[in-house]
Amino acid sequence: MSKETAFLAADFNWVRSQQSIWSNEPADVATLNHDHVESVLRDFARLDPPNAGSAIGRVVNGPAGSGKTHFLGTLRRRVWDKHGWFILLDIVGIKDFWRTACLAFIRSLRQALPDGRSQYQAVFEAALRRVPAEKRNAIVAANKNLDGGAIGTVNLFVKILQAEFPDALQHSNIIRALLLQGDPEVMEIAYNWLQGLEVDPSDRKKLNITAPSPENVELVRGISWLMSLGGPTLIAIDQIDSIVAVSNLAADSASDGSDETENAARNIIHLFGNGLMDLKGITARSMIVVSCLGETWTILRERVLSAVHQRFSEPVFLRPASAETGQISDLIASRLRPHYAEPGNMPPYATWPFCPQAIAKLGLLLPRKALMLCENFRLNCLAEAKSLNASISKMARL
After folding, report:
1. Is the same domain home to 218 and 127?
2. One domain, residues 371 and 307
3. In a domain, 117, yes or no
4. Inter-residue contact 358 to 396 (CB < 8 Å)
5. How many domains does the chain contain in total?
């Protein structure tokens, strides 16, 4: 394969889904807004002491295409590197804040860490390390004839936590349900119970769960408490702009204050805003980071958060990528590198065919715009296949 063919196969896609936050992108550019990342992580580090409370929330603003989702993906990776926990809250289609938040905690805890363990498995292992070894050993010895497979092991874990932490008794059913997600025989029952769904008493008995599911807010409280035993939690909230903008527009455009459309729109804004405040209050050893457009945060602050906006620091603004500092070159090279890695594809420089002189002319540019320019050139080369080499050569000489 030639370097020309490798270039045409490059992926300059500039749209990142929320799910991409969980993946380690080969095209990650660590230099983009590095200072803002470090600032958030410095605040997050204040949660390292086991008895820490919650940190002041952080707000990250930037126009579309500035890399807000990329920013959260970088935070997720760095938080995991520091042995903390990461929760991603998706509010698309929100109707019940606490049901949405509960599902976000459950789904996020099922995400796999780089070593293959799920987050919830790592949470339990970290929590158990907080229990003195002699207590763990004594309980294990007392249960040396333990029978019952996974459920028996879960019961043992609960006893170990209860021996050291009085609050474990209050949350024992949540602990059992979380752990039993790893047992194929009962995982569906455990998952349904954790979502607040109705579970038959006979099925609950199989799991040694002693009560129906509590309200979603209490599920979130219990899960957060357990997570706090093993480390701090960063709760990321992304892609809220469309739902807030649409709701705000509907609220402003309705002519009658009693109009159902206006009321529904206002309810969505207040549902999310009030939920955001309550989430900060009930989660332990946690920090909330909200990523959104500047206009979105203004709407939330003015309509819902005016009395308590001090619980969040002033927004930081993501900056365009800079050609002068090499950020645009790093961005382009990161997309080309996987395709140039094969033998025979090695180009004369990392950004080929986009030469340093051409990149320098870009100055300051949103990451999305830089990728769009690269993709437009790639598509033009594909469309003019007969003059492919000529087009690429011309760009390389600019």
Report:
1. yes
2. no
3. no
4. no
5. 3
State whether 126 and 218 are in the same domain.
yes
Continuous H helices in the chain:
3-8, 34-44, 68-81, 97-109, 119-128, 133-142, 149-164, 167-170, 172-179, 187-194, 201-206, 216-230, 241-253, 260-282, 294-303, 327-340, 356-360, 367-383, 388-397
How high is the pLDDT of residue 131? 86
- Examine the domain organization and report whether 349 and 393 are in the same domain: yes
- Summarised one tens digit per residue, pLDDT across range 318-358 is 999 999 889 999 999 999 988 888 777 788 899 999 999 99
Domain-ending residue, one of 205, 226, 247 = 226
The two three-digit tokens of residue 230, written as one number? 């093993």
Instruction: Report which of 108, 59, 73 is spatially closest to residue 87, judged by C-alpha positions.
Output: 108
The one-letter code for the residue type at 221 is R
Contact 212, 257 (CB under 8 A): no
User: What one-letter code names the amino acid at 194?
Assistant: L
Pairwise CA distance, residues 233 & 332, whole Å: 33
146 has a pLDDT exceeding 50: no
Reported as type and span, the H/E element at residue 259 is none
Q: Are residues 219 and 308 in the same domain?
A: no
Mind listing the pLDDT tens digit for each residue in 97-140?
Answer: 899 999 999 999 999 999 999 999 899 889 988 888 887 787 66
CB 216 within 8 A of CB 196: yes
Amino acid at 156: L
Domain ranges, residue 244: 50-84+232-317
Q: Which helix (H) or strand (E) holds 365?
A: strand 364-365
Say if 276 falls within a structural domain. yes
Tell whether 222 and 242 lie within a shared domain: no
